[in-house]
Design a protein that fits this description.
Residues 105-239 form the GST C-terminal domain. The protein is mainly alpha-helical. It has helices spanning 21-31, 44-51, 81-92, 100-123, 136-167, 180-195, 197-205, 210-220, 223-229, and strands spanning 9-12, 35-37, 70-73, 76-79. It has a four-stranded mixed β-sheet with strand order 2-1-3-4. Helix 1 (21-31) crosses helix 6. The longest helix has 32 residues, at 136-167. It is globular, with a radius of gyration of 18 Å.
């Protein structure tokens, strides 16, 4: 018998970096959910390492996850950021009822593609196992293309999604209330502000993406999100997806 309805959620993720786990934390925090986070537990990293160990073959909770983030809820264990968000959203009230969840999920996936996955590739364009310094010149070329082409393309898309919403007095990507897609877009923009502060300042000042940045501020000032961002639960950016290398940003 399933025991998912009772007990807290457990987020299993690396310590010391927001990383991909942050998209899930924001959903849990916005909903005021009861959850634990291995990133803040002594020896929590051992929980992560045990689940991705090459000798671990899974158990009744599920097959072995490839990598964190991992969510444990009752007798269920799942992985992959968008999969976890898709599971959590209806339980946390962060998506409309019915098939609309798939519209919201499309928006969240697009934000994860362009503002997370592609961002990571700006500082590791050749191979994840290589040091940044070993692919510095390639990183400069990739970052220039991202800042000038890919990032504006994604921001333009979200501005296009938001324009008819704004005309109805709605700051959100879909429907009348905040969804998890808004949280994903917020985190993508926030991480980019850390990684490329000069580029993001230029793009914001251009006025071409006004509704995107209005959404960012609207999420940032929601009571639970505001409290979370000011708390010790919010980890500082460092060597995760969003890294600040001045040489990859716009010239001063």
């Amino acid at each position: 018998m399933s025991q998912r309805s009772n007990g807290p959620y457990q987020l299993i993720y690396w310590p010391q970096i927001p990383g991909r786990g942050e998209f899930i934390r924001l959903a849990l925090e916005e909903a005021g959910a009861d959850y634990t986070d291995t990133a803040h537990e002594k020896d929590g990293i051992n929980t992560v390492l045990a689940l991705i160990d090459k000798n671990y073959e899974g158990d009744q909770s599920g097959p072995p996850p490839f990598a964190p983030p991992i969510l444990k809820h009752g007798d269920l264990r799942i992985s992959q950021t968008p999969n976890i968000l898709l599971y959590l959203a209806p339980r946390l009230g962060l998506t409309p009822d019915g098939d609309a969840i798939y519209q919201v999920n499309s928006l969240a996936l697009t934000a994860l593609d362009g503002l997370s996955d592609e961002t990571h590739d700006t500082h590791h364009p050749i191979a994840s196992e290589l040091y940044y310094e070993d692919q510095l010149e390639e990183s400069k070329r990739r970052s220039e293309s991202y800042r000038k082409n890919r990032l504006p393309k994604f921001l333009s898309y979200f501005e296009r999604v938001l324009k008819p919403q704004a005309a109805l007095g709605r700051p959100w990507l879909y429907g009348t209330t905040l969804t998890y897609a808004d949280l994903v877009l917020f985190q993508g923009i926030d991480g980019l502000k850390f990684a490329f502060p000069r580029a993001l300042s230029r793009l914001e000042k251009s006025g071409e993406y006004a509704n995107v940045f209005k959404l960012y501020e609207a999420v940032k000032n929601r009571p639970r999100i505001k409290e979370y961002l000011a708390s010790d639960r919010r980890q500082k950016y460092s060597l995760g997806i969003y890294r600040h290398y001045p040489e990859l940003d716009d010239a001063e």
